[in-house]
User: What shape does this take?
Amino acid sequence: MGDMRDADFEQPALQALLQGHVTEAVRLIAHIESPSPGVDRPGQAASQGIPPSLVDAASYLLTLLYDDLPYPAELRRLVGAQLSLGVLLWERPDAIALRLLRLTDGQFTCPALEMFLRHHPPGRLWFHFNPNRPQDRAALYAQTRCVEAAAAVRLKSLLAANAPTQRGRGYQGIEILYGAGHQCEMCLESKRQYRWEELENLPKLPRHWGCRCMYMAWIEILGP
Ligand SMILES: [Zn+2]
Ligand SMILES: [Zn+2]
Assistant: This one.
């Protein structure tokens, strides 16, 4: 599973993340992955292949409590660090799922997620999804948490762009874009565009387990 190859920087990076030192983790990863090491400034390290938005998402993942997981606090902190590391390494949810499985002796479980799956047929959410497989559940958990982090980071940057100078250029507010291939009725039937004045009603993303919706700038081209 790539453990041998990854051993050099994975453990130090994980330790850095457990201590909340995301910049240090980025440095460790960038030094290994980059063909030209020797990067010292965090901004530069990020530009070596890890976009600032991913670094921010990785930081966000370290702040969550993961108290929907029936594991001791120490293990839940490791879940956060592994999710964070997976994001920094550009891993897909099924790869991050393997990290969560290793932490939980192959039996990843999340009661809230399993309750949700009982009421929402997974076929609508995920093409090859099997709710009885711990790996699939872990992947759905990882994907949903990563969407949560990405959405929080995106929303923050969109709100920062809400300056009066932007408003006159057809920048109407924030819209919610559906994930590619997303066939979820829950999201398709819901309101999608929110003007600046309506942002208190903006739903928190993800709306549910498996939701891959994302915030976008809502730009309306105004007529002449
Ligand atoms: Zn949905
Ligand atoms: Zn959605």
Summary: Residues 8 and 32 are 8 Å apart (CA to CA). Confidence is low (pLDDT under 50) at residues 37-47.
